């Protein structure tokens, strides 16, 4: 049965239902690249599917991950094929990537690996976990809209994403990518990886593209070209998104004062910090904190 949230997030137990809904309701255009994340888990049977003009075979206990902007082609399935299928908008995928940035230092290598090897065979323990996530989403969608609906859905999605990252820790090919040994790792992959490491290791305190370019011994223009190629965003946009995510994390999950956070993030003064937050979040740091969370202890 097909379930929807705001006609954007789709959850179904049959891929045939998904294709029919996409065609009928014009949620996505199957003739164009789909700006969404698609995750399929095969419970039973097998399927052959064409994604980005490449044929993939999916069998029982496999999870298939299509990152945003994929081209959906023809597929064939066995009569006994059963699955869970989830489609979520590209914006949610971007939010998950940024949220995982705070926890996982090598998420880029893992994302690159999944992009090249989208079929992941799950062991029994991981299989139970991912089935539980799909069932939790299905149960949640059956209930009436709740307060903090968006935050709850994001938390479930983030937990599932972290499970994937944890599962990939033991994949040997990822270590090859990290060490630049994989034949498919080119110079731009290597530079982009180092750029992301700089973003994380410096705790997002540098907000100038020129600084990152100088650390990488390339021009700011070339860094911008690489970022556009790898994630369809400018270097400045990616830097600001990571900085804002770090600020949001500090506002929501610490009792540090606004002045302390501004100092930690190396803003020249509190006034400049507040202007930066208002520009990117549409509200002041204090208002964002008060409206988005209920802290355990009073904060100022």
Structural account:
This protein is an alpha+beta fold. Helices cover 53% and strands 17% of the residues. The protein is globular, with a radius of gyration of 21 Å. The N and C termini lie far apart (48 Å).
Brief rundown of the structure:
With 300 residues, the chain is an alpha+beta fold.
Topology, please?
Blueprint: E1 3-5, E2 9-12, H1 15-25, E3 36-44, E4 46-51, E5 54-59, E6 62-66, E7 72-77, E8 82-89, H2 90-101, H3 107-116, E9 119-121, H4 124-141, H5 149-167, H6 172-178, H7 187-201, H8 209-216, H9 220-231, H10 235-253, H11 258-264, H12 270-281, H13 285-292
Antiparallel strand pairs: 1-2, 2-8, 3-6, 3-8, 4-5, 4-7, 6-9
Helix pairs in contact: 2-5, 3-6, 4-5, 7-8, 7-9, 8-9
The SS-based structural class is alpha+beta
- How many angstroms separate the termini? 48 Å
Count of runs of 4 or more consecutive helical residues: 13
Strand content: 15-25%
Shape: globular
Mean pLDDT: 79
User: What's the β-strand tally?
Assistant: 9
Radius of gyration: 21 Å
Strand order of the largest sheet: 1-2-8-3-6-9
Low-confidence stretches: 294-300
SSE arrangement, N to C:
EEHEEEEEEHHEHHHHHHHHHH
Helical content (DSSP H or I, runs of 4+):
40-55%
Q: What is the makeup of the main sheet?
A: 6 strands, antiparallel
């Amino acid at each position: 049965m097909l379930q929807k949230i705001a006609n954007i997030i789709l959850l179904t137990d049959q891929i045939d239902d998904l294709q029919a809904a996409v065609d009928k309701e014009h949620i996505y255009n199957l003739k164009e690249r789909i700006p969404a994340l698609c995750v399929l888990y095969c419970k039973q049977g097998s399927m052959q599917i064409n994604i980005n003009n490449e044929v993939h075979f999916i069998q029982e206990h496999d999870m298939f991950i299509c990152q945003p902007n994929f081209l959906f082609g023809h597929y064939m399935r066995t009569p006994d094929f059963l699955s869970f299928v989830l489609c979520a908008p590209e914006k949610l995928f971007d939010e998950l990537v940024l949220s995982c940035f705070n926890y996982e230092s090598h998420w880029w290598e893992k994302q690159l690996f999944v992009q090249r090897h989208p079929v992941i065979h799950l062991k029994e323990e991981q299989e139970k976990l991912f089935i539980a996530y799909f069932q939790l989403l299905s149960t949640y969608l059956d209930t009436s809209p709740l307060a903090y609906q968006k935050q709850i859905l994001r938390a479930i999605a983030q937990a599932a994403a972290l499970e994937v990252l944890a599962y990939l820790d033991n994949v040997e090919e990822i270590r090859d990518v990290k060490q630049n040994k994989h034949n498919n790792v080119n110079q731009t992959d290597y530079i982009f990886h180092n750029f992301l490491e700089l973003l994380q290791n410096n705790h997002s305190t540098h907000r100038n593209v020129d600084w990152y370019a100088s650390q990488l011994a390339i021009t700011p223009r070339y860094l911008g070209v690489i970022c556009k190629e790898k994630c369809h965003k400018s270097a400045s946009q990616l830097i600001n998104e990571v900085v804002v995510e770090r600020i949001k994390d500090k506002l929501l999950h610490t009792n540090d004062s606004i002045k302390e956070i501004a100092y930690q993030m190396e803003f020249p003064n509190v006034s400049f910090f507040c202007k930066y937050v208002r520009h990117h979040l549409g509200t002041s740091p204090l208002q964002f904190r008060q409206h988005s969370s209920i802290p355990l202890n009073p904060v100022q």
